[in-house]
Structures are given as structure tokens and as C-alpha cells.
């Protein structure tokens, strides 16, 4: 069952995915999100670009398969929240959608290949995705649980799980996309 906090977070993801702001998520919106993310990778980095693109298409397909109106090619906010809770956050689906995006993203951003994200790599990522550096800098501080100046893959995955699955309003992972008090 979706908690009020998850509804808030899923609503924020919906707003982010609704690239044209028309109140619906369509395949075009998902493709635009994929382009935003794949643009973070080096031009020759086809492996990570492909993982991110495939993850977004997997997510879209999960949304389409679970929609109530099978004739419609768009998903409204309430249906998105319902599908997120019932389908997307299920372990097997979460990995093929969100997990693929994150693995590709981490691979693309870890330019020095050390297996973690520096503050600069993290802030650059969110700056290019439209999240202000002041927000991403604070998020980095909270997500760097061991305060070593890097966000490891394990720390990033823990933040991801907390963002999508946790009902704890104080979980550091809630900062994955910015402060909870601005999420609408």
C-alpha cells in the first residue's frame, strides 16, 4: 500500500517525467527523459546509453501494460501513482526499469572509473537534469553516508531504494531528487 510520502515522491517523478507539462505521460515524454539521461554519457559510451534508454523503455512498457484504459497511449498522475505502487516498485520490475537506468547512469558518470561518484560528478549530473547545484550539493552531503567525499554504488542504490520504497520521512534517500519539502 502506498504511503502519503510515496505518493508525494511518485507525484514528483510524474511531474518530472511529464516533459511537456500537459498532465500526461506519453512515450514522447519518456523518450525525452531518456535523451536527458543519455546526454550525460560520453558520445562513444553506447553501453551506458543503451542501458539507460532500455530502462526508460522498460518503465514505459510497465506503465502501458498496467494501465486501465488499454486504448489510451497516455498515463495520468493518479494512474501513474497506482502503477508505481502496484507494478513498478515490485522487485523484478524495479530492477529492469529503474535499476537499468541507474546502472547506466552510474557507469556514464563515473568518469574516473573508481566505482563511485565524486561531488563534482554528482552535481554535474543533476545540473544537466535541471536540478540546481545548491540542491544537489546538499543532497550529495546527505547521500554520502560515510562522509568520504564520494557516493559509492552501494550508497547510491541505498538512496534509490529509500526514495522509491521507504516510508521514513527522514531517510537520506529522500534527497535523491532534492528536498522533500519542495516536492509537490
Automatic annotation (TrEMBL):
InterPro entries: Centrin_CML-like, EF-hand-dom_pair, EF_Hand_1_Ca_BS, EF_hand_dom
GO molecular function, one term: calcium ion binding
EF-hand domain ranges (all copies): 5-40, 108-132, 138-166
UniProt keyword annotations, A-Z: Calcium, Repeat
PROSITE patterns: EF_HAND_1, EF_HAND_2
Superkingdom of this protein's organism: Bacteria
SMART domains for this protein: EFh (SM00054)
PANTHER family according to UniProt: CALCIUM BINDING PROTEIN (PTHR23050)
Designated name of the protein: Calcium-binding protein
Organism: Melittangium boletus DSM 14713
Biological classification of the source: Bacteria, Pseudomonadati, Myxococcota, Myxococcia, Myxococcales
